[in-house]
Amino acid sequence: MSILQVQNLKARYAQTGDDILKGISFNVAEGDFYAIIGPSGAGKSTLIRCINRLVEPSEGSVSLFGQELTRLSARELRKTRRHIGMIFQEFNLVNRMSVMDNVLSGRLGYVGTTRSLFKLFPRSDIQRALELLDRVSLIDHVDKRADQLSGGQRQRVGIARALMQDPQLLLLDEPTASLDPKISRDVMQLIRDTARDLGIPVLCNIHDVALAKEFCNRILGLQSGRMMFDGKTADLADSDLERIYELEVL
């Protein structure tokens, strides 16, 4: 069953500029951990951000569980974004806030800004946050400020915060780019195992092809905004990688 359907997606940053995405089409099915790979400037991050309309597509269709996202009003989009968790390269935590408060901020779309400012979260939300912090091995850091954590720990907070949304889809925008190789692998394994346990499909923009091949079951290869490969990870050949990366300047 397709969870996310993307059809002929195009995007540009200026009305008269060139397309950054040039007619991308693919489907994310239940249980997929989908990697988007390609050289710098290929459009990977733009594609991820078009899904939840942080970047507005210029043409094409994005459908989540049959709901067309590109036609939603601002109010409808806010409601829909509750169900799309996002994990960022630079973590996007509030440094002066505690680990617990950063995780609880994942419920902003449900409780509202005013209640969150006064920390008026339901007991069920607090219990869920504690469960998720235990899952990401940060239960002993609940009261620490975010800026007291290592990079790997900060990304774990970001994972827990995204999961607090009870997402139907997880979007990952270079989740390991700021981490060293060992921590990167640990983070990818945590995301894969957690998504599998909770039944959440994942779409991941990632620069590390080795990590993509190890943890993702499907690969989307982009080059200059065009789709060069879409298929099972096991079917990705060296010749496909050469085509995807042939224009990259080393």
TrEMBL record:
Transport in keyword set: yes
Entry annotated with the keyword Nucleotide-binding: yes
Topology with respect to the bilayer: Peripheral membrane protein
Pfam families found in the cross-reference section: ABC_tran
GO cellular component term, pick one: plasma membrane
GO molecular function, one term: ABC-type phosphonate transporter activity
Domain of life: Bacteria
Signal peptide start-end: none
All residue ranges annotated as the ABC transporter domain in the record: 4-249
Principal localisation: membrane
Keywords annotated in UniProt: ATP-binding, Cell membrane, Membrane, Nucleotide-binding, Translocase, Transport
Annotated localization: Cell inner membrane
Alphabetized PANTHER family for the sequence: AMINO ACID IMPORT ATP-BINDING PROTEIN (PTHR43166), PHOSPHONATES IMPORT ATP-BINDING PROTEIN PHNC (PTHR43166:SF6)
Protein name (Swiss-Prot/TrEMBL): Phosphonate ABC transporter ATP-binding protein
